[in-house]
Specification:
Layout lengths: L23 H7 L4 H17 L11 H21 L1
Length: about 80
């Protein structure tokens, strides 16, 4: 917005918010009835994941692929070197 003086004037809009978030009591009451069941299922899955052991060969995912690519590059290098 430019008044007649030629200077830019910037305005600020203040928008009041009465209640940004509902009170804690209302949030707990409004929670669905199956929430407790869902929480218990999540806890059981977390416990199962925590007890899983990774096999010895799968310590680093992708390590086998990297080894295969490096092996192929070495073979290509040796074949090209032998042709010269």
């Amino acid at each position: 917005m430019e008044p007649e003086s030629g200077r830019n004037v910037r305005g600020v809009f203040i928008v009041p918010t009465l209640e940004a978030f509902p009170p804690v009591e209302l949030a707990e009451v409004a929670a669905p009835a199956g929430l407790e069941e869902l929480k218990s299922r999540v806890k059981s899955v977390e416990e199962k994941v925590a007890t899983l052991e990774t096999p010895a060969g799968e310590g680093a995912p992708g390590f086998g692929a990297i080894t295969a690519i490096v092996g192929l590059l070495i073979v290509v290098y040796l074949v090209k070197r032998r042709k010269k």
